[in-house]
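Before going further, learn to read the protein records used in this course. The integers have meaning only within a learned vocabulary of local backbone shapes. To see the layout at work, look at the sequence and tokens printed below.
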Amino acid sequence: MYPLEIERHGDNMDLNALSLFVAAAQAGSLSEAARKTGVPLPTLSRRVRKLEDDIGVRLLERGSQGLALTQAGAQLFADVGPAVALLAQAEHRIQDASEISGTLRLSIPPHFEPMWSVMEVFGRRFPEVRIDIFVTDRRVDLVADGVDAVIRVGEGGRSTYVGRTLARYRHRLVAAPSYLRGVRLKKPEDVTRLRCACWRATASPSWELGDTTVPLEPVLATNDYRHLLHLAIAGQAVTEVPPFLATGPIARGQLVELLPDHPFPLQSVRALVADTRLLSPVVRHFLDFAAEAVPAALGPVSGD
């Protein structure tokens, strides 16, 4: 955006004049640069001439065919053009953030902890946005539940909803070192000899480990990954947990990962909305933000 409202201080270059010089160099004429920047032509011409006086060299040759950069002007344009563009982009982002306001109504699954930091950063970037989060593991009805967007793990959701894949990750098969004393697991089928706890499913419970389906007779099934994590750390069972819950306990030696050469299938993290044509600016900014922030919060995908 031109002009950048930064005035000269002391012997430093006038950044506002620099931005006008860049605009003139890009436009090929002072009048066209004035039109694009909204700065009156006499003002723009005066500021560029003063810039030339300040640095003591001619930057532009003015002729009947328009403007031509001198050798010094071409060098200055190459040096400052990218920086001026970055400053303009930063100004746009600041203005966009200050203009976005309203309420973001979001649904996320329980224990999806990476979203906590994602929403914290989003709230700082868009301070005028009020965030309303509905935490549930059931399939949300966007209209009935009054939700703008759903963060969903897996491919479920109404066929009429529009999905955007944000990231993918794999669960990790873990157990406490104390539980594994004397135990040797060479292949996925060996898991059936151990006490297992798993996510509560409507169908017959099983684990997909690599290319092997392992049927389970779990000692406990629950829709609470924190409960599964507790059982594993306590040495009560082998279980599966998302990587963001497993990483810390593994690093502290509370858990070890089992059969890493037979990884769980990839899980998709998706953002669902009712209709992309009717998105509010708040929801649109959130989806764009989440597309970058969620993969960064989840970290690298293991097992690939």
